[in-house]
Amino acid sequence: MTSLVGDSTVIPSWSPGDPVRLLLAVALLLSLPPVLTTVVMSRTRASLLRIGNYGRRFVLGDPTPHRVVSAVKIADYRLPGNRTCLVRSLAAETLLRLYAFEPDHKIGVATESDASMEAHSWLEYDDEVLIGDVDDLDRYEPLPSIDAATEL
How is the chain split into domains, by residue range? Predict the structure, then answer.
């Protein structure tokens, strides 16, 4: 049986690692909003990247990046309430790092003529948007890489 959830990929059947990824996605999606209100985003992300990189030793399997991200999309769809694109992209990035994928985390800004500003967060891997793809993504001007501070 296949299902399509939001902009999620089609998952024809559960693989052994899918329930674990789904539980981790739920934990991240529920814990990140309060953390981001009390801890600076750069520090939160650095901690998540350490967790993801360290956790590689303990995670089994070799799912595709799309399969990993689909756990976040399904959990986000099923959980009550709304989460921001930043929360979704941080959760997906952490899970991807567990499987040794290193996506490019982008944050872009769109300015409208009425002087309002809008930001959006998304992940790209191999020049493909994995999470955070919206119809008008090209209107967001990407800010310098959020990894730039560590690259100096």
Answer: 18-151
